[in-house]
Amino acid sequence: TDVKGEVTQKYETIVTLQDGWQEVFEEFRITWAIIQTRSPLAVELSENQNWETIYKDDTAVILLRTQSSFP
Fold this sequence. Notes:
Oligomer: single chain
Mean pLDDT: 91
Structural class: alpha+beta
Radius of gyration: 12 Å
Distance between the termini: 31 Å
Order of helices and strands: HHEHEE
Strand content: 15-25%
């Protein structure tokens, strides 16, 4: 179990949009996300031209990364 371990800290970095959250996306090569519709992360990704909303309702949104800078 990763109780307050590295993975949990990285998750918190992403969902709270702390400095470095984009680097965590790069590190794990995240290309899609299923998150709460009104979360700060959903708003941020929805406004980013490299992400496309492929599904959205009052509960969740599914976003797909359309461009990647992965090597």
